[in-house]
Design brief:
single chain; alpha/beta; Rossmann fold; two-stranded parallel ribbon; 6 helices; elongated
Length: 158
């Protein structure tokens, strides 16, 4: 387990979303997680605080250490209150135009990494590539072939 690394995923406060899936995978790798999203009313674009808490609780149920923090990453005040030592920020490449809305003082203090594919997130966020799960190596129970006398004896005892 990697207890020294923390993964913060913005937009992860909705069930069934990409952010939740990313956090679930990083949790499997031992990361401590922060669920964060814009605190809204729960409409189609903004998660409610209770939905963020529900996502966090689901991640905790499998043994992952999780914090939940509503945060609007477009707001300097909101980011500065929650940032706590974050240096690298991975964003979807499609969101690059939105960076113009973030003040330079915030952008200049972060290493913002735009990515196009989920695989890029995994290689950037993890210290080593995860290995595929192995199939169980339990020995298969061998079928014993019974002689006709053993079969007859079974019939008589049952």
């Amino acid at each position: 387990m990697n207890k020294t690394k923390v993964a913060v995923c913005t937009g992860s406060g909705r069930h069934g979303g990409l952010g939740e899936a990313i956090l679930r995978r990083l949790g499997q790798e031992g990361y401590r997680l922060v669920v964060t999203d814009i605190h809204g009313t729960g409409d189609e674009h903004l998660s409610s605080e209770s939905e963020m808490a529900s996502v966090a609780e689901e991640l905790r149920s499998v043994g992952t250490e999780v914090m939940c923090h509503p945060c609007d990453v477009r707001s300097p005040d909101s980011v500065n209150q929650k940032r706590g030592g974050i240096k690298n920020v991975i964003i979807p490449k499609d969101n690059q135009p939105d960076l113009q809305e973030i003040p330079d003082q915030i952008k200049d203090s972060l290493n913002i990494i735009p990515v196009e594919w989920v695989d890029e997130i995994v290689s950037l966020a993890l210290e080593k590539e995860p290995l595929p799960l192995k199939k169980s190596n339990k020995p298969k129970k061998q079928k014993t072939i019974k002689s006709s006398s053993e079969k007859n004896q079974e019939k008589q005892t049952h």
